[in-house]
Specification:
Elements: E1 6-15, E2 19-29, E3 34-38, H1 45-52, E4 60-65, E5 68-69, H2 75-83, E6 85-88, H3 100-105, H4 114-119, H5 124-136, H6 152-165, E7 170-174, H7 182-198, E8 202-206, H8 210-216, E9 219-224, E10 227-232, H9 239-245
Parallel strand pairs: 3-8, 3-9, 6-7, 7-8
Antiparallel strand pairs: 1-2, 1-4, 4-5, 9-10
Helix pairs in contact: 5-6, 6-7
Bound molecules: adenosine-5'-triphosphate and magnesium ion.
Domain ABC transporter: 6-250
Pfam families: ABC_tran
Keywords: ATP-binding, Cell membrane, Membrane, Nucleotide-binding, Phosphonate transport, Translocase, Transport
């Protein structure tokens, strides 16, 4: 058996003294899994995703990614670990005044020298890869448009290409379709699933839409009040289990997140 991609052990996160957002999460994720995390607002889904790359430092427990304890990693080691983790955001986080292909190429910045990156000197192979990715997600007509001129669904496809351009081992997506209409959401999820399957990437996606989770996930994790209350395949997610995950908050099943925008958090 190969080493798992990610192992969380007794992971906790508290904000201040009174908000216990994660209360002892144990979770092992293997290479190539497409994991969707569901749960009501405030359950701890975003906190869980952010503790994986330690954008939000965990309070106790461990996060082992690709064999290294993220909570102990510092400086260069932490940067190297984070370079292996691609991020996809609800609000896309593109540079809107810059064209689409440059936005995708930005995915390479973490692996370039300071001089190369400050001069924006990308290798021809990188440019070709960015182009090929954009064609793959159906954006060949948009390559030289400003990112800000695209629709939300198109912007998120650019976001996927940028994350893939980073050549990550793990992709984290926090509510990638929460700002999209159902048709655009389906397109984005389909490309995300296809590309990650083709490249055998591990993917963890937070979603509010239970039906979308069922459709795409190879494994669903149900989080409630900072704890995992369901871990199984789509077919095992019964209506009773959904009711349990969302109990008291049933009105949120399938509704988009009402989140405050924290996407402005930027990688160091
Ligand atoms: N930066 C923060 N400072 C203080 N408390 C926070 C912070 N971020 C999250 N919390 C709290 O931690 C708990 C979990 O929040 P989190 O954002 O992880 O939930 P979520 O499942 O992602 O919710 P949503 O579906 O609304 O996005 C909530 O009680 C929330 O208020
Ligand atoms: Mg959230």
């Amino acid at each position: 058996m190969t080493q798992p991609s990610l192992v969380l052990e007794n992971l906790t996160k508290s904000y201040g003294k009174n908000t216990h957002a994660l209360k002892g999460i144990d979770l092992t994720i293997h290479h190539g899994e497409f994991v969707v995390i569901i749960g009501p607002s405030g359950a701890g889904k975003s906190t869980l995703i952010r503790c994986i790359n330690q954008m939000v430092p965990s309070t106790s427990g461990s996060v082992r990614f690709d064999g290294i304890a993220m909570e102990k990693a510092k400086g260069k080691e932490l940067r190297q670990q984070r370079a292996k983790i691609g991020m996809i955001f609800q609000h896309y986080n593109l540079i809107e005044r810059t064209n689409v292909i440059k936005n995708v190429l930005h995915g390479r910045l973490g692996q370039m020298s300071f001089l190369q990156s400050s001069l924006g000197r990308y290798q021809a192979t990188d440019k070709q890869e960015a182009y090929d990715l954009l064609v793959k997600v159906g954006l060949e007509q948009q390559i030289y448009k400003k990112a800000g001129a695209l629709s939300g669904g198109q912007m998120q496809r650019v976001g996927i290409c940028r994350a893939i351009m980073q050549r990550p081992k793990l992709l984290l997506a926090d509510e990638p379709i929460a700002s999209l209409d159902p048709k655009a959401a389906e397109t984005v999820m389909t490309y995300l699933k296809d590309i990650t399957t083709e490249r055998e990437l591990t993917c963890i996606v937070n979603l509010h839409q239970v039906e979308v989770a069922r459709q795409y996930a190879s494994r669903i994790i149900g989080v409630r009040d900072g704890q995992i209350v369901f871990d199984g395949q789509s077919k095992e997610l019964t209506d009773e289990m959904i009711a349990h995950i969302y109990s008291g908050k049933e009105e949120q099943i399938g509704t988009p997140a009402m989140t405050y925008n924290e996407d402005i958090l930027v990688y160091e």
